[in-house]
Amino acid sequence: MSAVLRIESVSRAFGGVYAVRDVSLTVAEGETRAVIGPNGAGKSTLFNLISGHLVPDAGTVSYGPRGQWRRIDGLPPHARARLGIAIVFQGARLFGGMTALENVMVGAHARTRHGFLAGALRLPGQRREEAEIRADALAALERVGLREWAHRAADVLPLGQQRSLQVARALCARPRLLLLDEPASGLRAAEREALAQLIEGLREEGLTTMLIEHDVAFVARLADRVSVLDLGAHIAEGTPEEIRADEAVLTAYLGEGVS
Ligand SMILES: Nc1ncnc2c1ncn2[C@@H]1O[C@H](COP(=O)(O)OP(=O)(O)OP(=O)(O)O)[C@@H](O)[C@H]1O
């Protein structure tokens, strides 16, 4: 299977202490990859190195859909959307004054020629594009099970549905790679279950997804492969079954419990 994301020997230190040290991993096309690790393992730092919010001190991050590789470390975060990388940040905010549909439409504007402002001003040439975006946004809402919520205010949705809405917003940009930062954090059991089913559905559609998670149980059923960080190092990679049985992983999670 061909690869989509390649992280090679990436390091990043803060005040002389490595948050991520010499991490390499490759995500295959169509794969759901989880990156897990105990508190302070370096998960968020790795995510930020991929999303562009941090620049590595050493190493490279490359993105190569259909074998067209290019380095993305050093590119500003917004440049990723046009390349087909959609990112759902932890604690990402929805636009409170807007409906669910309008929130998703904002995501779609990332890939249009005219951009959000032109769309908002409704210049003549943009009306057709606007109608396409609206149709795409409704389709994205349908994909995440929120079609009936389209015209409700986004900020009154329960947290689980707000998370799904963020995924819909990301999907509307038609990504080839979806990055999710701790998508299950703060969700109740039923909401986690719904989110897990959503991510599984995207996998069945062939979307490549990489998610950072603290919770081993959440990713165990979803991920094709799991990468484990501990104290900034990539200590293990394998299927969820292999990871659960890995001595180094058990030691890293000692005291926290690999559930
Ligand atoms: N901006 C920063 N400045 C200083 N130190 C940082 C910064 N970001 C992360 N660190 C340190 O780097 C290490 C890794 O942190 P990081 O947040 O990446 O881990 P994590 O695996 O995401 O942890 P958690 O599960 O607790 O969110 C920690 O020791 C943290 O204190």
What features would you describe in this structure?
- About 35% of the residues lie in helices and about 25% in strands.
- It is an alpha/beta fold and about 260 residues long.
- The chain folds into two domains: about 1-85 and about 175-259, P-loop containing nucleotide triphosphate hydrolases (Rossmann fold); about 95-175, no CATH class.
- The chain has a six-stranded mixed sheet with strand order 6-7-8-3-9-10, sandwiched between helices. A four-stranded antiparallel sheet has the order 2-1-4-5, with helices on one face.
- The radius of gyration is 19 Å and the shape is globular.
- It starts with a strand and ends in a 7-residue tail after the last helix.
- Adenosine-5'-triphosphate binds near residues 19, 37, 42 and 45.
Fold blueprint:
Layout: E1 3-14, E2 17-28, E3 32-36, H1 43-51, E4 58-63, E5 70-71, H2 79-83, E6 85-88, H3 100-108, H4 115-121, H5 127-143, H6 159-171, E7 177-181, H7 189-204, E8 208-213, H8 216-220, E9 225-230, E10 233-238, H9 240-244, H10 247-252
Parallel strand pairs: 3-8, 3-9, 6-7, 7-8
Antiparallel strand pairs: 1-2, 1-4, 4-5, 9-10
Helix pairs in contact: 3-5, 3-6, 5-6, 6-7
The structure holds adenosine-5'-triphosphate.
Domain ABC transporter: 5-256
InterPro entries: AAA+_ATPase, ABC_AA/LPS_Transport, ABC_transporter-like_ATP-bd, BCA_ABC_TP_C, P-loop_NTPase
GO molecular function, one term: ATP binding
Number of domains: 2
Radius of gyration computed on alpha carbons: 19 Å
- Looking at the structure, the CATH topology of the largest domain is Rossmann fold
Strand content: 15-25%
Largest sheet report: 6 strands, mixed
Separation of termini? Answer: 30 Å
Label the CATH architecture of the largest domain.
Answer: 3-Layer(aba) Sandwich
Order of helices and strands: EEEHEEHEHHHHEHEHEEHH
Number of strands: 10
Overall geometry: globular
Q: What are the low-pLDDT stretches, counting only 5+ consecutive residues below 50?
A: none
Bound molecules: adenosine-5'-triphosphate
